[in-house]
Design brief:
Two copies of one chain form a homodimer.
Chain A (H helix, E strand, L loop, with lengths): L12 H10 L9 H13 L5 H10 L1 H9 L5 H7 L8 H10 L2 E4 L8 H12 L21 E5 L3 H6 L1 E5 L6 H16 L3 E4 L5 H11 L4 E4 L13 H10 L1 E4 L9 H14 L2 E4 L8 H10 L3 E4 L10 H8 L6 E2 L3 H8 L22 H9 L8 H8 L3 H13 L3 E3 L4 E3 L12
Chain lengths: 426, 426
């Protein structure tokens, strides 16, 4: 399949890349070369490398792919791609996504959930320069190069007010009951329930949300066109009808063991908080909680009978004062913890106030185009944001005054958030 | 019964009081007049009045009774005693206690648990001067004037390493199971389990400790010769065989409703911490926890299924960050929270290090004789401690250097503990 011949009507990857690097597109339009560059990156690199993400962030996706294919990238980056550097499965991957009712959403898209995922960008900026000291792939907080999305909703809208409910696959009837009730309560109040699509607590959470007509999102550790576990075909179809199936891996990718750990950062990153419903002793619950906390997200834990092995991990979390975990027993408790003050007490489905509120579409696009580390010139921002360089120069002062962007001396970048409040989403 | 004729061989109350006020007794002996004065106070006054306790603390028990009976006490103190001022049921009460296998333990006794109860003295010292602004009886932290004790163990030894396990009378099988297991685990490790002798969690805790041959103490809201609830006759007998039944109320007193609330301060005060096992929403659990915390004692809470109404109060406590409540799921967790560092990890049954360690018996008696508010002269200390005034003068400098006592300008008193760490018992 990777060698499927490309129809003559379709430009080659290199042609699209050249067009994207040279040309400009109208506001709101993402150049085909940009999406194709990210589709290529999504295919050739296993997610989670801080070093690779910085290479792409610094160069921009189009230039990153061109450098890799022209052997102009640093050796330690090239080695990560290996022999796949000469492959181009982008047309196939994008077509295969379309057949599965899916698309590739990229950071340059309007619907990119830049605000919740900014937590990952910020956490990555705290990683050391030297790649040998960076977190390994299963623990690193790297943002995705793009997200393959199956379903109809706008990704940013769907995850805007979302909470993750996660827990053991070997759940008990108690845990499934509580996960289902909590998800239903969140769904009824207009909150999206995000989970990992697995057996046990994950499935109970998805089903609880679906049962009340709520929106639910499954973030998978395999391609969005695959059904894993196989018994969840009907469940995934129902999720995709009203919600979304999301993965950073291109169609067809297999659910390899380490990919679940890598995937978990997206569950934490996309939501305002994570609820752990059942977890065995020394399970991944502590790691999940630590990761969510590092991203500035709320960690919530449902207690259970102390006689249940499936609640031991939950109680460990609640006993660990460092974990920042908060005990929750109901959807109301969850909303208390993650909801916008005032907004959610009133039950209204408004967005909470953020520094981005009130910004024009153009300003938001320019802001999202700014890298978090090395500053880039306005020309580059214009290319990424898909607008005129004069438009960029017009909105930058306002963004600077709002404390959202910063001039580094050589270019513009996102202003670092205050350490104490890494995410203003609560 | 209150008018039972006193045998001619028995001195009258006033004779005993006069002897106690005038005479000295050998070290370790409590003058009969002192015990009788406290028996009288225990009968005529409903426990819990800060004002009354201060009157007794300032005057000493013998002088307090003499002033009351001679109508030389302040009006607002006299009014608390009312018409009972001319009664003397002390001989009857003490004999009735003896018949029930009980005795009156007074602060002047060696076995008085002065160290744990010091938490009450300290908390009382924070009450305002004006009696109209003091906590009411059901919430005040006043120390008892004496403790009626049924059973054979030394009170101070039995409660030295003790934890309270309390909870709902309307408990579930889950709560009773957990209370019983936890009490058994504590009993096996040499810890005393204290509770209130009620149905439900209390009974499960007592039975759990008894089942492993552990020591358990029931602190009642009625006389120690009474059985309430009536179905607990056999249970109380078993408790008294190996442990203790304790009450500040004299024999025969009925379990009036408000007395349970007043009694609760003793459960908190006598132990190093309180474990709440099951509690309904807005039950007394919050008040119990607040009281224990005010006394500087550890508050521990057992979670349960969020679907159980009997765990709602427990989860409320754990969600309330002000409560200081710590989640515990096992006896090991409890011992971690209240045990002496190192000592209990090794499993040995040693006392934790306290400022009192290394003091001679004489020094301890003098220290316990010191009032917490107004200073008293060494002569008074000698009389209370039952030793020579020269001996008092010999140990006071050492106590002062150790930061345990303080010269007020007119007399000696207990040095106030640092606010942050009201009790060093953990």
């Amino acid at each position: 399949m990777s060698t499927a011949p490309v129809s003559s009507a379709v430009p080659t990857l290199d042609e699209d890349l050249e067009d994207a690097a040279a040309s400009r597109t109208g506001p709101g339009e993402v150049p085909p070369g940009v999406r194709r560059a990210r589709a290529w990156l999504s295919r050739v690199i296993e997610p989670g490398s801080v070093d690779f993400w910085r290479f792409v962030d610094d160069a921009g996706p189009v230039e990153a792919v061109r450098r890799l294919r022209a052997r102009r990238a640093p050796e330690r980056i090239t080695v990560l791609v290996g022999s796949r550097v000469d492959d181009d499965r982008t047309v196939d991957d994008l077509q295969r996504a379309t057949r599965a009712g899916a698309r590739l959403v990229v950071p340059e898209d309007d619907e990119w959930p830049g605000y919740p995922l900014h937590s990952l960008t910020l956490a990555t900026s705290e990683e050391p320069e030297d790649f040998r000291h960076q977190e390994d792939r299963t623990r690193s907080p790297v943002p995705p190069v793009g997200l393959w999305v199956r379903g109809n909703g706008r990704l940013d809208d769907v995850v805007d007010r979302s909470v993750a409910i996660v827990g053991s696959r070997a759940s008990t009837a108690y845990g499934e009951h509580v996960a289902g009730e909590m998800a239903a309560g969140l769904g009824e109040r207009g909150w999206t329930v995000l989970s990992g699509g697995a057996f046990g607590i994950d499935a109970a959470a998805h089903r609880g949300a679906l049962a009340v007509g709520g929106t639910t999102v499954a973030v998978l550790a395999c391609g969005v066109d695959r059904v894993y576990p196989a018994a969840h075909g009907a469940l995934f179809s129902r999720i995709a009808e009203s919600g979304l199936i999301v993965s950073e891996l291109p169609p067809g990718c297999a659910p390899l063991r380490h990919r679940f750990l890598v995937r978990n950062r997206l569950i934490a990153g996309l939501t305002r908080g994570t609820v752990v419903v059942e977890a065995a002793a020394r399970s991944g619950a502590q790691a999940t909680a630590k990761r969510a906390r590092r991203l500035g997200k709320q960690v919530m834990v449902v207690p259970g009978p102390v006689t249940s092995a499936m609640s031991v991990g939950c109680h460990e979390l609640l006993r660990d004062t460092e974990s920042g975990a908060q005990l929750v027993a109901s959807a109301a408790h969850v909303i208390d913890a993650v909801g916008g003050l005032g907004v959610d007490l009133a039950g209204a489905a408004e967005r909470p106030a953020t520094p981005r509120d009130g910004l024009s579409d153009l300003a938001l696009r320019v802001l999202d185009a700014c890298p978090v580390r090395a500053g880039v010139p306005p020309e580059r921002l214009a290319s990424i944001a898909g607008c005129d360089v004069l438009e960029v120069l017009r909105v930058l002062p306002a963004l600077e005054v709002a404390g959202l962007v910063q001039w580094t001396g050589t270019g513009w970048r996102v202003a670092p958030a205050p350490r104490k409040k890494a995410t203003p989403s609560r």
